[in-house]
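Can't attach files on this board, so I'm pasting raw text. These are the components:
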Amino acid sequence: MSEPLLEARGLTKRFPGVVALNAVNFAARAGEVHALMGENGAGKSTLIKCLTGVYPRDEGEVTLGSRVIHPRSPREAEAAGISTVYQEVNLIPDLSVAENICLGRQSTTFGLLRWGAMRTRARAALARLGLTLDVSLPLTSYSIAIQQLVALARAIDVAAKVLILDEPTSSLDEREVAELFAIVRRLRDEGMAVIFVTHFLDQVYEIADRITVLRNGQLIGEFPVAALPRLQLVARMMGRDVKEIEAMDHRPAAAPRSGEAPPVLAVRGFGRRASVKPVELAVHAGEVLGFAGLLGSGRTELARLLFGIDQADCGTLEIDGRPATVRSPQAALARRFGFTPEDRKTAGILPNLTVRENLIVALQVRRGLWKRIPRVEQDALVAKFVAALGIKTSGPEQLIKNLSGGNQQKVILSRWLATEPRLLILDEPTRGIDVGAQADIERLIAKFRDEGLAVIFICSETAELARNSQRILVLRDRAKVAELSGAAVCEESIIHAIAGGASPPAGPAGP
Amino acid sequence: QTPKKLVVGFSQIGAESGWRTANTDSIKAEAAKRGIDLKFADAQQKQENQIKALRSFIAQGVDVIAFSPVVETGWEPVLREIKAAGIPVVLSDRAVKVSDPSLFVTIIGSDFVEEGRRAGEWLARKTGGKAVIAELVGTPGSAPAIDRKKGFEEALAKNPGMKIVKSQSGNFTRAEGKQVMEAFLKAPDAKDITALFAHNDDMALGAIQAIEEAGLKPGKDIVIVSIDGVKGAFEAMVAGKLNCTVECNPQIGPQLFDLIEKVAAGQKVPARVAVKEGVFDETQAAAELPHRTY
Amino acid sequence: MKFRVPAQLIPLAASAAVLVLLYAGGCLAFDGFTSPRVVINLFGDNAFVGVAAVGATFVILSGGIDLSVGAVVALTTISVAALLGHGVPPLAAVLLVLAGGAAFGAFLGFIIHWFELPPFLITLGGMFLARGLGFMVHPESLGITHPFYGETVGGLAIPVAHVTTASGRVQTLTLPFTAQCFLAVVLVASVAAKWTRFGRNVYAIGSSESSARLMGVPVGKTKILVYTLAGFLSALGGVVATFYMQSGNPASFVGLELDAIAAVVIGGTLLRGGVGFISGTLVGVLILGIIQTLINFKGDLNTWWTKIAIGGLLLVFIMLQQALSRRRRE
Amino acid sequence: MSVVLPLVLWIALAAGLCFSRRSVVFWPLLALALLLLFNQLFTPGFFHVEIRGGHLYGTLIDILNQGAKVMLLALGMTLVIATGGVDLSVGAIMAIAGAVLAQRFVGAGWSPGLAIVAALALSVVAGAWNGLLVAVLRIQPIVATLILMVAGRGIAQLITDGQIITFENPTLVYLGNGFLLGLPFTLTLVLVMLALTAVLTRRTALGLFVEAVGDNETASHFTGLPARQVKFLAYVFAGFCAGLAGLVAASNIKCADSNHAGLYLELDAILAVVIGGTALTGGRFYLAGSMIGALLIQTLTQTLYMRNVSADIAPVPKAIVILAVCLLQSPKLRERLARLGGGRKRRAGA
Ligand SMILES: Nc1ncnc2c1ncn2[C@@H]1O[C@H](COP(=O)(O)OP(=O)(O)OP(=O)(O)O)[C@@H](O)[C@H]1O
Ligand SMILES: Nc1ncnc2c1ncn2[C@@H]1O[C@H](COP(=O)(O)OP(=O)(O)OP(=O)(O)O)[C@@H](O)[C@H]1O
Ligand SMILES: [Mg+2]
Ligand SMILES: [Mg+2]
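---
Top answer:
Structure tokens for the assembled complex are below.
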């Protein structure tokens, strides 16, 4: 076993109300991919931020090589040879892609930037990930997934000794993950230490050499991958018995749809210029309709259209078989629709408000300005959902921005569930969520579906999509290319349809 | 054939007080009466705006430029430019400090120092040279505030029995005049105050309210003298609440355009023309009030 | 590849279009508006606002705001006048106040960064401080009579055009030194904003401070530097104002910061930071200037109609800009 | 009286400080207490309160009465700032309200009640105009309200024809000068408006909506929250509050002075709100904090008057107080101090 390259001993970090890290030891070795695993809120991101000088650590020591280091900022960490991609996309929205990749390391002549060189370098960095973009466009003109790739391109564009990736793959599709892993392997073989955080177990077993597990800020242990089978890993992360976990894996089977009630929502020839080509779809009470497609295939845009965030410019929409319009989120809410956006940070949470307020806001909007939900009822609701979804928070009055990503997502889900919706549109609800919580959410979806909720489920994980959906709508280039139902709802046919092979028999939407 | 209409550019300071509005009205009315094409620009109390206005007068090719300067300094460059363009300049109301006196032809207006001096002298006569005075100063840094204070203090210097115990700016406004006077009256030594000197009538009128609210009789318990001579001041004098106002006459329109026409015609004019002004106290107020138009 | 105006350039282009429209309108409506004097005055008369506004642009790009501009300009003018009055050589006086302005800005920036306080409040405090200090330096306006000002600076003007005056004399029009300073500052600042690391860091911080920190941008250093630069440029604006008026006055330039901010925003820079151009500020300053020129040429507005007209033109302008940028984005 | 009232004041302050120990309001309150303490010790006559003319009379009473304008403005401003905006036009709206009041009453011969209603109605219209520009046309708030800030004062002067219009009507004069139960009527007005605002925001969902919009507009929009309407309402309310402040200001000096009414008061209002703990970026708001902020500013003004600090250098102490309050409030400073103190303790314990 080689010597540790980056090593932390006795690292402790306290936040008001939480001990995010409690005397954690951690060691990454050169030429090795080291996975950092744990549930939401276990302290993975905090560990990374302590290592790279974002947070000052309360106690502990960090060594790089044989040297003790005290980075006070990511800049110093990078100078010392640690390159990091932090969780969530942390780039500059208004700057161009090229600048985002080169910011802080631009080459200059006589103190002046060389824009041409910068663009070339950015294009090259993106090409390593198999991506061709117009690098002079501002970052915001690209989707979250592209942004995540840009962040990765930025991280690997620098010669570092240690590369840290905090959930870099949460928005990526298989092909992109494959490209990324090829690069990671190459870097590892060149002698770099790679630290990798993810909630995708498959990816861990595909790429990692060693795993460190954290739980509630405690170090659970460090294991070679071979010594830690999947179930063991999950058990360690969750702090349960392997038996318990095995029991958990039994998903409730999807109940077949009964009755011939009109669909909760049906659209025909529904689309928007330069955004989504006219589509036809119907979703019934008690079923989950999945949207499959590659990045940028238009799933999010279709969802926004259905929820009234963007307005359709053609086609008709029916609710319960009657013509209707949904021209704003307000109207959608009044129709008892719900929508959890994929971009949690900018479109989901109200960062400086409390968990309680974030949770009740949609219900409050539905009740109207004058009928304030009494505090007792609010507290009861919060208590109910915190318990039901297992939201980890120090209390209902905690600011939501201080929750880990997964727990934020659960709060937003609760926000809509509290309104007792008839149709729930979930855009990547399990992105960045740990296995336990993911199972929770999947179980909840099934439960509410069985109670008569109609669900539209967008997810880039085909397996997950297949597992949870009754029917699947496949989109490619912003147009509907197939609809799968019954036995066709399986990973193979989804991938087949996405890839654009001869589509399997796809029945037209609607009754 | 009709003679070409005289074009005059006038840059006014603003409309910061009733006095100033009356001044503007007088100038506009007189120009209209004489059939002069008046280019009027309001500077919103900013010197930089005035300079811009003067420059645009050059571009418009006016025959004569007149203006009431916001402050005394800072005119040298633009006046030189005007001179280069061959346009004569008449100052109204306030003076400017320039190294070259040929940069303007003449000035018509009041002498702020003299006004302050007259107020002080009147107060000395009224109180027999013994007074404990509170002073409401104008806007800090403004020419009237500086000069009126100077003149007033000159008059006091001759009367050792008179001293200023409180002095604070009321910004030439009623609201602040009242607020500052309220504060003056709450000091432990407020009982000693026997007189008030306000740099303009508006502040005096505000202060009168504060004095009344304190249960004192303005004009009796505290002798009040102010400057400007607006209508409200005369009304207050008639009501016995104000004792004296030193006139600063805003209605200079006729005199101003007499001068301008002479200047335009190339005639010789005196370097300084004083405005007809008086000092009015309670005894004359009732007789004068009907003649007050502003 | 299809040609397309980059989205970020649209507001700037719209502002420039409006500027041209306003100028053309003035030429049609008024005699004498076509005179080259009008254009020269536009640059010369607005030079000090412009210089200060460039500083404000950096601050706004970085996501902050600077309310101390007017007070610092006033403090600078009176300080220069007082220093010259005490026999300090002009160049030394100018250098001294520039250093003072930079130090003042650095002080504000330091507090804003170090204690994580809102720039609005701290620079408001700075405004009061500078205003009071100005009156402490000298409580009333002071003329500057030093020959350096009259002759040396005056001699730096560049002849650009000839006009015939009403009396038939041919006169040479010059671009005053103040305007040259303004244009030079715009040029240097544009380069600094677009072509230096510092400039790009400013944009990055304004767009997303937390991301910028994680990406290794020296946030604290950049922020302090931005306010230092703003203080320096405010002081330079003050120096330009002394060239312009040859006097100092502690009570002057009240509300100049709002003019500066308005110019920046009209120039297409977003107040939230991260988006905008220095050249936009140039356009913004010229638009505010031309609005005033139009009112002066109109020549019959009294105080209140002047105010209403300024407000109205500002509104018309903003609507036009919005309409143009919306049309172009479609 | 002279002993009782200050005593009551100090007890109330101490209680307030204890009560708000964990809240944002603590720091501005502490600053106010410190400033008052300074005056108690060093400014003779500051705490002197007596009964004169059947009502309380003294500097403390002046602070309440003169502070009322900024307190009223700050109420509306708090909501506007909480939505992530700012309203620079409130000073101009004050001038408009005063101008309408005086012109309708004196010029048009309306009854005082009608004149008041007209003034408030026009203020609401002015607020709605701002709301329109910000919420519907999506113009940046600073620029949008700058328009009315410039033009509004012109409109006020247009209404009064540039003159100062004076009035003596007892009803109108009572607004800004009257006393109710020995205390200034303006205090009652402020308390009623404060209670009204508190009920409006905390007993309905308006407060939550305002905070949500200010915190993250996109997310609010996505939850179906009527973000535009909420913003619009905030500006209308700020207009109404400014109208009330304008009435008080005009009544206080028994005339409409369009050129000076409310001049630069928008800055004081913003300052009061921010000192009170509401962030300029929007989100959480603190009505009580804003009131304390306004009182702090007025106390400071009164202190400068009482101590005869010359008006031209008065900005310096004002700046020092602002910076001091900011530093007091800065969590960063406390964090740094705590780390220093904590480090020492730990070392001492070890
Ligand atoms: N800035 C902060 N202030 C207060 N508490 C924080 C802060 N950042 C993190 N925490 C808390 O620290 C704990 C660890 O959070 P962390 O983000 O490290 O979890 P994680 O393992 O990365 O989770 P996820 O998988 O959801 O990203 C959580 O309880 C979180 O609420
Ligand atoms: N590879 C790409 N190149 C350029 N633009 C892209 C690319 N991928 C996505 N986009 C842009 O991002 C927008 C977002 O598409 P949308 O979010 O609807 O896709 P999606 O299927 O939901 O994918 P995602 O997984 O990113 O959410 C698209 O309209 C497109 O403009
Ligand atoms: Mg994390
Ligand atoms: Mg998507």
